[in-house]
Amino acid sequence: MLEIPGIYNLFTLVFFVFGSLLGSFSNVVIFRMASGASVIFPPSACPKCNHRLSATDLFPVISWLFLMGRCRYCKAPISCQYPLVEAAISLIVGFSFYRYGLTLGFIAMASALTIWFIGSVIFLRNEVNKPNPFIWALAYYVLLVFTQNPVLTINEALIFFVIASFCGLLACRGSSSAVFAGWFALSFMSMWAMKNMSFYIPGLVFLILAATFGTEKLSKTSRVLFFTAQVLIIGYKAIV
Hints:
Mean pLDDT: 74
Helix content: over 70%
Shape: globular
Low-confidence stretches: 213-217
Number of domains: 2
């Protein structure tokens, strides 16, 4: 049934919409992990006036545009991170489905790239205090990436799972230098798993540039450069 072009395009649109909803939830994860709060309770509210948001305030991207980036109740500005994350994950999920169809490859690719993107945003914000659940997400992400590589056996993929867990621990709990080392290792492993030299080398250059700007205390420029590298790699992997 999905082989019919019109039906396939309709399902692609559905997954773009689903991706935006996933992006909306991802924003909750990103902001609440910074404070260690639950990602389920309490319901979403304006961070300024604490007014509980209605369903019409929570439409991904559309609500932010309709409200012109301001709270409906107190008119406080709303971070542009909300629509950008929603749009980015919408593109990740939508293009992953368009490329792979309704297969395990689609689930693995969409999951891996979504986790990678959320992790990159968290790294850029540098606010996470209680990262335990995120460490497992990072490890799961790398496991997904490597199981999609036909050259590796399942045992080799599991070894990388263990390595990824350690890298995630560094990325979330170590000193500034250890944080960068953990993220660098995760990114390096992921690019190596892609086995695509046309993007492997430029991505590595970006990581080195980011490292140059950040020593004991990672500067904002360093994080922005690093985040830019991650977004470029994620976009390339989702589309090509």
